[in-house]
Structures are given as C-alpha cells and as structure tokens.
Write a structure and sequence with these properties.
The complex is a heterodimer of chains A (about 180) and B (about 425).
Chain A (H helix, E strand, L loop, with lengths): L1 H6 L4 H9 L9 H17 L8 E8 L2 E7 L6 E2 L5 E9 L7 E8 L10 E2 L1 E3 L2 E7 L9 E8 L4 E7 H4 L1 H10 L1
Antiparallel strand pairs in A: 1-2, 2-4, 3-4, 4-8, 5-6, 5-9, 7-8, 9-10
Chain B lengths: L1 H12 L4 H9 L4 H21 L3 H15 L1 H8 L17 H11 L4 E6 L8 E6 L5 E6 L6 E4 L5 H11 L10 H8 L1 H14 L5 H4 L9 H15 L1 H22 L32 H11 L4 E6 L8 E6 L6 E6 L6 E5 L6 H14 L4 H39 L1 H4 L7 H14 L2
Antiparallel strand pairs in B: 1-2, 1-5, 2-3, 3-4, 5-6, 6-7, 7-8
Helix pairs in contact in B: 1-2, 1-17, 3-9, 3-17, 4-7, 4-15, 8-12, 9-12, 11-15, 12-14, 15-17
Classes of the chains: A alpha+beta (about 180), B alpha+beta (about 425).
C-alpha cells in the first residue's frame, strides 16, 4: 500500500494535503487577528476611555459623600480558588470627597462592624477598584453594602440591591441556587 | 531491515552521495554500527518532527519575540517624546518631589500612581497618572526639566508586541488564557530540538573551530550549513529561552490550579493605629517622595532606586525599588507613608532559592536587565533563532521536493523499497549526511 502510494505519486487533494499539512499551524495565527478588536477594547477599558467600568450603576449618596459605582466588566463572578467567586466593582469619589474619605469598602450583606466592612477599594481616587466575594448562597434580595470611612473616623453606609448593581451576578446566583 | 531501507532510500533520493549509500550498505555487516546508526536516525526523526508540524507558529512566536525584545528601543527611535534629552551638558536629574510638582503643574488634578526611572538614562521617565474623568495615562516626563513630553497613545507598540508574542492578544478573563499556554508550550519542543539537534550533529564542536557556510552550492546546502552553524552558536540562548518558556508554562499551570510554591502570607498593610486620625475635612500629611527615596537609600546603600509606587489606599505603602547587586531581581523597600518607618524589605537575600529562580525567569527571557547592549545581543540571537526555524523548514521542503521528483522519475526502481513517508526517507538520508559532518 505504502509503496504503491509512492509508485503512483499522489494527485489532487492528497498531494495538496501532503504538501500543505506542515503549514497548517498558520491557522493558529487567526487567533491574534480574531482577538484584535477585543484587545483594543480591553485596553480602552483599562485606560478609562470607556468610563468607570463597562456598566455604570449610577450615583450613590453615602452619608455626606457622593460616589459613582460601576461594574468593571459585565460578567458573572469568576472563581478564584479558595476565595470563592469574585466580582469586581469600581468606585469614583466626588472631587470634594477625595480629601475627606480615608477608605471605602464593599461587601454582599450588611457588615456588622468596620472589621467586616468587606473588600477595601484600592487604586486612584478617581477610579478605585475592589473585588468582592459573592457567596453562592446569596438570595435574590441580596444587597451590596458600601462603607465609607472618613479620616476623622466617621463611618457612613449605603446599600443597593445586587440585582441593580449587577444583573448578570443576580442571574448567575439564580443558576447556583 | 532498516539499513536496507535506508540504502534504497538514499539511492532513490538521488541526492545522497554514493559514499553514504555505500556506507549504509556496508553497515549491514556491522551490527554495532547499525544499531548506532538507527538510533541516530531515530533522533533525527524526532528532531525533525518536533518543530516541523508547527513551524509557522514557532516562526511567528520567535519573530514577534525578537521584535518585542527591542520594542522599547523601536519606540525610542520612532517617538522623540520618550527620549531624555538634557537641556544643558551638566543638567542635574530632578528628584521625585520636583517631578511630582512638575506633573501637577502641567496636568493639574492628576493623581500620580507610579514613577519609573528607566535603567537606561537615554529614556524619559514614565509616570502613571489618573484624571478626574477616570481615564489614565502613562506620561513621558523629561528627567531634567520635568516637562511632560508626551504620553503613550492608545496603541502602545511595546505592550502590543508583548501581548502578540506572549499570548496572541487573547484576553485574560479567568487565569491564563489559551494563547499563553500555546506559546509557552513551545518551550518543550524547543528544548528537545536543542538536545536532539546536538545529538544528531555529530562532533558539533568541530563547527566552532571550522565554521562552514557554503553560499554557492544551492539553497539546500546553504540552509543546512546555516542551520547547523547558527544552532551551535545559539546553544546558550536557545537553552535560556526554552527553559524560561517552560517555566512560564509551569507557572500558568500552578497558578490556574491555585498551587503556590511559596507561602506569601497575608498582604502587608499599614496597621490601623499607625494611620493618624485627624479632624473632619483634613487629611494626614504623607512623607515626601524624596524622603521615601532617601530612606530606601539609607536602608540599602547599594540600591539604585528606579521606581516609586505611591500608596493606592490609606493602608498602603510607598514602595521604592531598583536593582541591586544581583541584576535579575528588583529589591524593594516598603515605607510607611505617615511616619517613614521601613515596614518590609525584599532583598535578594530575603528570598528563598526557589523564589530567586522563579523571579529570574522573566528578565532572562526578555534580556531587559542590563541596558541596550544586552538587548541587542538578545535581538541578534532572536533573529538567528527565527531564521533557524525557517531554515529547518527549508531543509525539509528542499529535500522532500527533490525526493518526490526522484520518486516520480524512477517509480519502478524504488518500488517496494521506499518507506511509506517520503519524510522518513529524507530523514534517513540526512542522518547519514549528518554523521559525516
């Protein structure tokens, strides 16, 4: 069989296959081409050219301070090992608050004290980021709690329904339960 | 059996010198030699098959990696804003505080996050800032005047080449992406190619003493000579690149499976009681950037501070870092921004052997730890490696084409003697040639 193949050289498709099979890995180069738009999209997001995040949730009053909250990416929480499933939110402080607010925290469910206020927002005061664990057993009425702490020690809180803060997270929770 | 096949194949190829065919036939009577030869044939087949099926991909990765090595220098050539031209011969470099003020003067309201002073003095400083509209930018700042000369555009060539080379531009949504794995995996066949190449190239050390690059004997001979010559001179480079790439692969596997080689412990934060409490409407003063740099210098006199990272929240530190005596790793000092206390230091001596090994992998791969001359060395060997992938493929196709032509010409003679794949015959022909240098 093998010798026959050689004796009568392959023609048509078979010959093409023999000749071109070693160049097939060029198909992998479709990947960078396909991901090119997404690459620049992500770059624009990280440079803040798309705003605070992919989906702005809106303005919130936390005590005397006005903040803007956004979903960094419109996507369900991502599994991060033992930490559980994490969801990233971004926060922008109003111009006047920057010098007054010492720290901002976020968590799902009402914190009992400052020690359990949740994930600490970090980054530039114009765009702070925090990854908050989303408990898989959180109910449909789960709320996202923001805690802001002033340099003088003052604490202020605000809550919004998780369904409003991140509809995809709410949908993801519904699938978990 | 194997010898008779190879003899017939060499004959059928019509390209092996008859001396080799004779050798192959006479090997029939020498069982030891036969065994040795079939083993080297096997090694040759392995060597060929390691890269050939994916050669375009390997070529692409080598080419983009080579460009990525000097991408910073390409940007330097293309964009005058990233150059650091001193206004006068003996102009002093500005301190961090003066830089901070200069940036604030030109871009009021910007929030500084990071100042980096490139090891190469011909480059402008990079200052990362965020603006009130939540946009951020990397500014190129003249180290002598503090003038903002420009900023990285939305198309950052350096970042783009790195992303194209390292992960095919694919997004990192959850852990390492397919692109990263696909590229890093090539470290395995590359290292195996290096080893099998040296096994197949008998007495390769003679190539160092008597380099051979025949230009006028056809493409096949030229590419063959080139492949061997470039190969032996690139042994350390290929070893470095492939081993570091394998580490990138292993690192991704460890990360995605949440396996930590070293227990990093909880992240360092400023103790709550160390953060001063002040009256409403005020904020506690931070120590100046220059003072932070001075404290770092006093802590480690031989540390050349090349970057300062500003606190990203109320419990974060100034991190001042630079390269010390061991050039492959950054040494850092974490300084309490309220009272100047040194809270943590990361010296090479503070690291375990495992950490020193793993942290050295990236600079070894990119060659960005000793200025432009080393980058040019990396670039040169990168070009050679890229050409080796190409020449390997050329050797293969030239031989296969000739051999197919021969097979067409003399179908009767070769009937029943030629192995199933033309490639195998070609490999054997080459194994014989390789044996004779």
């Amino acid at each position: 069989m093998a010798s026959k193949t050689m004796a009568a050289p392959p023609t048509g498709l078979a010959a093409k296959w023999r000749r071109w099979r070693f160049h097939l890995s060029a198909l992998l180069l479709v990947l960078p081409l396909a991901y090119l738009p997404r690459y620049f999209d992500d770059l624009a997001l990280s440079r803040g050219e798309k705003g605070l995040g992919q989906r702005e949730i809106g303005q919130l009053a936390v005590g005397p301070w006005q903040v803007r909250l956004a979903e960094w990416r419109v996507e369900p929480p991502l599994p991060e090992g033992e930490a559980g499933h994490m969801k990233t939110f971004t926060l922008g402080l109003c111009a006047d608050c920057i010098s007054q607010v010492k720290a901002a925290y976020v968590r799902v469910g009402k914190p009992r004290s400052l020690r359990t206020a949740g994930a600490l927002f970090s980054g530039s005061p114009y765009r702070l980021m925090a990854s908050v664990p989303i408990p898989q057993r959180a109910g449909a009425d789960a709320q996202l709690w923001l805690t802001l702490e002033g340099w003088d020690g003052a604490l202020h809180q605000a809550a919004i329904p998780l369904a409003q803060a991140s509809p995809v997270t709410q949908a993801w929770l519904a699938r978990q339960n | 059996m194997v010898s008779s096949v190879s003899a017939a194949a060499a004959d059928a190829n019509g390209l092996s010198p008859s001396r080799e065919a004779d050798e192959a036939i006479s090997a029939l009577g020498r069982p030891a030699g036969k065994k040795k030869r079939s083993r080297s044939k096997l090694w040759f087949l392995v060597h060929s098959w390691l890269a050939l099926p994916v050669w375009i991909f390997v070529f692409f990765v080598c080419l983009t990696g080579t460009i990525a090595t000097v991408s910073q220098e390409i940007v330097w050539l293309a964009d005058p804003a990233v150059r650091a031209n001193p206004p006068a011969q003996d102009a002093p470099l500005l301190g961090y505080d003066a830089l901070y003020e200069a940036v604030q003067r030109e871009h009021p309201g910007s929030a500084l996050q990071f100042i980096s002073r490139p090891v190469k003095s011909q480059f402008a400083l990079t200052v990362r800032v965020t603006y009130p509209d939540a946009t951020s930018a990397s500014l190129y700042v003249n180290p002598y005047t503090g003038h903002i000369q420009g900023q990285s555009s939305s198309f950052d060539f350096r970042q783009f080449m790195r992303a194209l080379h390292g992960w095919l531009l694919m997004p990192f949504t959850n852990g390492f992406n397919f692109g990263w794995y696909a590229v890093a995996f090539l470290g395995f066949p590359m290292l195996a190619s290096l080893v099998t190449g040296l096994v197949v190239y008998k007495r390769f050390w003679r190539g160092y003493l008597r380099p051979k690059l025949r230009l006028r004997q056809g493409a096949r001979v030229f590419w063959g000579d080139f492949h061997r010559l470039a190969g032996i001179w690139s042994v350390p480079f290929i070893a470095i690149i492939s081993i570091t790439a394998i580490w990138f692969f292993v690192m991704a596997v460890l990360f995605d499976n949440h396996i930590a080689l070293e227990d990093e412990g909880p992240p360092l934060i400023v103790a709550r009681e160390d953060v001063p409490r002040v009256q409403a409407g005020q904020r506690p003063p931070l120590i100046s950037l220059d003072r932070a740099a001075r404290i770092a210098h006093e802590t480690f006199p031989d540390l050349e501070p090349s970057f300062v990272s500003l606190p990203s929240n109320a419990f974060d530190y100034y991190v001042v870092g630079g390269r010390g005596a061991y050039p492959l790793m950054f040494e850092t000092v974490s300084i309490n921004p309220y009272n100047g206390a040194v809270e943590e230091t990361h010296r090479v001596s503070d690291h375990s052997a495992v950490e020193i090994f793993t942290d050295s992998m990236r600079p070894l791969h990119t060659g960005d730890f000793a200025g432009v001359p080393l980058k040019l060395v990396y670039f040169f060997f990168g070009v050679l490696l890229t050409m080796m992938v190409f020449s390997g493929m050329m050797i293969w196709t030239k031989r296969t084409v000739k051999e197919t032509a021969a097979a067409i010409k003399r179908p009767r003679r070769t009937r029943g003697a030629v192995p199933a794949r033309p490639s195998a015959a070609a490999a054997e022909g080459h194994a014989l040639r390789g044996r004779h240098g």
